[in-house]
Amino acid sequence: MKLLAWCLLPLLAFPALAEPARIFLIRHAEKPEDRSDPHLTAAGRERAHRWVSYFTNSPTRQPTIVLAARATKGHPSVRPVETLEPLAQALHLEIQTPFASSDYEKLAHRLLTAPEFNGRTVAICWVHQSIPQLVASLGIRPEPGPWKDSDFSGVYQITFENGKPRLAVTHTE
Q1: Is the dihedral of CA 54, 57, 60, 63 positive or negative?
Q2: For the chain, which residues make up each domain, given as ranges?
């Protein structure tokens, strides 16, 4: 019995690794010129509705989990949530907001260790300044360059092959 316990100890010391089928990262849709306004513009709300077609027109892109950066006192933007609301409604999913935009390392750790993500397709809407660091925290090397301020149609798709992450970058327009 003691031998069995010693053999199982290393397995208990490390969390089980999860491997999502694919992770899609987008930035929130268009924002107002007034940086104090935490909401999407009319153009941003239109783009949010266009994301529904992008994600639902292909079975390999249809998420089963949607995540967004959580608004905080220091970063009160609700744009990531507003960007995913039409998609979440169309797919009857709840938008999870477990982390603030600065907590991208915690999000990456959760994606790669929590069993709920294993084999799942995940759509994430984040703030563009932190997306390259989030991608790097998911194991992509080298870290992508900065996301352009004017880019609201970019999509980072991360897939895993034998535990190794791969990044594809596309645009919807």
Answers
A1: positive
A2: 17-171
